[in-house]
Backbone:
């Protein structure tokens, strides 16, 4: 897909409320929906919206109790520190108003006459509305004609027809919102947005549509919505204005900003966007890092095939399937059969897959051992010759076993299903153990233990793959998870005198590697440590 870019500068037509544009790399506005039940509450929220950096507010009249149109609208316009958009959404378009249609449209006309900067008119009534205004529209008021689809996202052709219909109905600004059943639905909306000859708002509702609300700044959307608080939204999937500005660096996005993201399902909990965006910002790297809730990774890569989508982290459950999506994978990823980092080469668009999980984990473990032995540097790994026990033969277990072996450790795999353990042990060249035998496994002291199973995960927090009394034989115990930072296993290991390394160090370690591949720049290690310490 080729994203050609047509740029529209469309000023906020509101005299003294002109948005100052010095720091911005895009003209896309951020609108905060205001949905109070009382005018007083709305006025308070408009103040908060302004303080948060909003360009305008959308006043949702359909949520007001005891609505007195002329008086209330006057007050709202007078009290708003930023330009106003008035919306009076009927039930038949997903809003709350269920009264007389003529009265509703009268209220919108009134808002226009009283000095609203924008009004939102639904496509179904737009022509009628235009006729009723009969050319008496105040110069400064712009009409947004909107259409909502709460079921799905139509084809590009159908969307183009919709946009043409909206345009022909007398719209100054075209708005359509559809529903994402799959993240690839959003690509069609970007395509329409990029090619639009009129100011356009194209948003896709739902968690799978989140990127439409962030990347519209790159693709030339007229505005996006950012809420004041988490979860208090006027449409499903809206981010907060704080996230748009601070997390995604919304104002710094431009047509040439590269998109990076973490592919997973679920993915909303991932801290990667915080980590990478903060680092991008610190060096002025022209990229944005987003959550990508992906159901079908092959379809994702077929759809987002342009160079704009430049690099990806990949997590559960897609690490194995990701291998097939890449044109080439490195030898480690190939042997493990899992990829956690994908780079699109900008010269030819080819996808390269890597596995940096193991690098992060292994170097965190090496650091832990060096700290314990008080040796620095050295040519050989601190793991060389050590007995390395991995619990679990899944993706993470495989990566660790492979990585430890490559560093010269003697590897033992313990799995509840002995056959699984044996299979992996044969592949990497190690020994197998059933989980039941782990308790009495103590050929020597100073061993290393790595837990990669879900035993002890919420809600079964009282389970453990190895009893505490058996931990005394281990010099170092590692856990692959970073929430919670200290698991039961790590707590008991520490009490038994072992050095502990948590998944947080592994997460940061693999992030260094990925960052360098994403940007071609050295990772800001201290910033990574500092950012993660906050969460
Ligand atoms: C709006 O926000 C700006 C920037 O934070 C601030 O300087 C200004 O005083 C605010 N205006 C009002 C009316 O609160
Ligand atoms: C809207 O109204 C104006 C003035 O009455 C008219 O010139 C224009 O053609 C109308 N537009 C549409 C799409 O009906
Ligand atoms: C570790 O090394 C540092 C100097 O590099 C030294 O000051 C410290 O005493 C050593 N600790 C142990 C336990 O040997
Ligand atoms: C055993 O290995 C399988 C993968 O082959 C993995 O899914 C499972 O979590 C492991 N279980 C235990 C208890 O080691
Ligand atoms: C073992 O590791 C998993 C994550 O891989 C973690 O959820 C679990 O809590 C750990 N088990 C214990 C007993 O700490």
Residues:
């Amino acid at each position: 897909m080729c994203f050609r870019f047509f740029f529209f500068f469309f000023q906020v037509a509101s005299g003294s409320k002109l948005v100052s544009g010095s720091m911005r790399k895009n003209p896309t506005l951020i609108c905060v929906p205001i949905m109070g039940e009382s005018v007083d509450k709305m006025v308070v929220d408009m103040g908060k919206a302004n303080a948060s950096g909003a360009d305008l507010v959308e006043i949702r009249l359909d949520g007001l109790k005891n609505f007195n149109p002329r008086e209330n609208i006057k007050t709202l316009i007078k009290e708003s520190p930023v330009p106003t958009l008035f919306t009076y959404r009927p039930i038949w378009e997903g809003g709350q108003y269920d009264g007389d249609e003529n009265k509703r449209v009268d209220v919108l006309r009134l808002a226009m006459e009283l000095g609203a900067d924008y009004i939102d008119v639904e496509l179904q009534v737009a022509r009628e509305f235009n006729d009723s205004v009969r050319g008496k529209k105040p110069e400064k008021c712009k009409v947004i004609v909107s259409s909502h689809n709460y079921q799905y996202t139509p084809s590009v052709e159908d969307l183009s027809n919709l946009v043409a219909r909206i345009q022909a109905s007398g719209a100054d600004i075209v708005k359509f919102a559809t529903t994402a059943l799959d993240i690839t639905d959003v690509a069609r909306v970007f395509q329409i947005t990029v090619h639009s000859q009129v100011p356009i708002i194209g948003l896709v509702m739902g968690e799978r549509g989140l990127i439409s609300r962030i990347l519209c700044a790159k693709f030339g959307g007229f505005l996006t919505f950012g809420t004041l608080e988490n979860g208090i939204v006027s449409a499903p999937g809206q981010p907060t204005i704080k996230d748009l500005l601070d997390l995604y660096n919304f104002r710094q996005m431009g047509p040439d900003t590269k998109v990076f993201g973490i592919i997973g399902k679920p993915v909303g909990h991932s801290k990667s966007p915080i980590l990478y965006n903060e680092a991008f910002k610190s060096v002025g790297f022209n990229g944005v890092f987003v959550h990508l809730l992906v159901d079908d990774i092959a379809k994702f890569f077929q759809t987002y095939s342009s160079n704009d989508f430049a690099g990806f982290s990949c997590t559960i459950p897609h690490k194995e399937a990701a291998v097939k999506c890449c044109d080439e994978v490195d030898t480690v990823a190939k042997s493990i059969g899992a990829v956690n980092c994908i780079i699109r080469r900008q010269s030819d668009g080819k996808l390269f897959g890597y596995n940096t999980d193991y690098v992060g984990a292994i170097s965190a473990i090496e650091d832990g051992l060096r700290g314990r032995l008080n040796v620095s540097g050295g040519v050989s790994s601190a793991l060389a010759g050590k007995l390395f026990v991995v619990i679990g033969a899944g993706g993470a277990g495989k990566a660790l076993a492979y990585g430890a072996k490559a560093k010269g450790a003697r590897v033992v795999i313990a799995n509840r299903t002995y056959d699984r353990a044996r299979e992996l042990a044969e592949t990497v060249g190690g020994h197998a153990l059933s989980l039941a035998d782990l308790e009495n496994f103590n050929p020597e002291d100073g061993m290393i233990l790595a837990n990669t199973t879900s035993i002890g995960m919420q809600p079964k927090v009282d389970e453990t793959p190895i009893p505490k009394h058996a931990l005394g034989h281990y010099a170092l115990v590692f856990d692959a998870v970073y929430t919670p930072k200290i698991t039961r296993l790590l707590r008991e290991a520490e009490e038994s005198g072992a050095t502990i390394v948590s998944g947080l160090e592994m997460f940061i370690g693999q992030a260094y590697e990925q960052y360098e591949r994403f940007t071609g720049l050295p990772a800001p290690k201290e910033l990574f440590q500092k950012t993660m310490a906050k969460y």
